[in-house]
Amino acid sequence: MAAHDRMQCDLIVIGGGMAGMTAAARAAEAGARVVVVEKAPAIGGSALLSGGFVWTATSRAQMDRHDDGDPALHAVVVEEFPHVMEWLRGRVETGPPVRVLYGRGQQIDIAAYMRGCVASVEAAGGFVVPDTQVTEIIMRGGRVAGALTAHADGETELEAEHLLVATGGAQADPDLRARMVHLAARSMRLRSNPHSDGGGHRLAIAAGGAMAGPNAGFYGHLLARGCPMRGDSDFVRFTQYHSIHGVLLNGSGKRFCDESFDDHSSAQLTLRQPGAAALLVLDARAQREFGVSAPVAGAEPIDRHRLAMEAGCPGGVFDTIEEIGAFASSIGYDGAACIATLLEYNRHMKSGPEQARPPRESNGRALEEAPWYVLEVDSAITFTFGGLSTDTRARALDAFGEPIPGLYVAGADVGNVYRKGYAGGLALAATFAFRALRTAGLQPTC
Ligand SMILES: Cc1cc2nc3c(=O)[nH]c(=O)nc-3n(C[C@H](O)[C@H](O)[C@H](O)COP(=O)(O)OP(=O)(O)OC[C@H]3O[C@@H](n4cnc5c(N)ncnc54)[C@H](O)[C@@H]3O)c2cc1C
Prior knowledge:
This protein is of the alpha/beta class and 446 residues long. The chain has two domains: 265 residues, 3-Layer(bba) Sandwich (FAD/NAD(P)-binding domain), CATH 3.50.50.60; 162 residues, Flavocytochrome C3, Chain A, domain 1. Helix content is 31%, strand content 22%. It is elongated and about 70 Å long.
């Protein structure tokens, strides 16, 4: 693009991750000339770090049951999902249908998908431009007219009637995390691409957009405390997906959540505990049956406890519950309370699980088979749930709730789809990309 300092196109996409590349490729297939402006040296975003499981809840009612985000936005994900899957199956190798949490989906070869998207954009005369920033969304007469971009070779003015903001959230900015999520989130570790720092939010707000309102939720997971974070493989290897089969204890030795709900939900609540950490306890049976198995059919089975121990993370394998207490005390937890809570939990699971506080909806088994596998865990963030005010047609809204002509939002930049639960990040990205194109009239006709 260096040769042009002014260029016309049909659609500008800010951010070349799942949402951005999906929208770009699909619009290109409809004959649109698209320019994707990507801040990082390469496209792919968090999508390229992901396991590639494109999944969501099987119905809106089910999503509403598991998450208290905006039901109208839930509906967008559920309605567009079959179209997204059909399209993906036609473009890239997909695995068999699998159950993921309370939904269903298929694994795709995400790297091949991204390559295919770039090829589609370029075949239609468009560009995918890495290492480039949008400095301003140009507005004329209250509607999108283009964008100013800055790159190493200088500035380019792009002219277009349609612009999609798809920068993947705000999780990479510690100050924004502290403001949007929780004070303790400032030092929360990042389990995502390092570029999604709210840049898309700022650009859209400068163009008249608004934030969707408070939402402290985030998608993340429990990771072994202090584990290496050298990149995508560590993000997955140290994630404690199986925490739903264990018990979590805070510094006061108390349970603080229904661990069985899901690891991502426990990650949100762990952040709010003193020290923003917890002890994850599994007994031998839970470790054998779940601790070393693949979280989703098709994913790699890994002994995550052993890996964490080898990496020097706080934890251990203990022959008695009293030994767990001693270990807990040695790292600053109330060891006596940890013992009391574990004994009481086991009593409740055997005599009347409904007595457990907090309640335990599923996986309610006593943890009584020695040895016990204990690991200190803390939360890492993949994307913020707070974001831009967006309607069900994927249009950015202003502070009065009015759509801004030509300005669309997709993926993790969309605010308030999820709040406490989660029903897929890749699906959230691709479905809103589809919806934005539908609204803009830039989707293929067949
Ligand atoms: C380890 C891991 C495993 C995961 N596994 C799964 C899974 O199996 N299934 C699932 O559904 N989800 C999974 N996810 C989550 C999923 O990857 C994300 O939810 C999804 O990629 C979000 O899509 P997006 O397009 O909104 O953001 P991204 O895919 O992150 O793309 C955003 C892009 O915008 C770029 N960008 C940021 N700021 C700017 C700017 N100012 N200007 C230009 N470009 C900018 C970024 O560099 C990035 O390329 C996983 C995530 C991780 C980290």
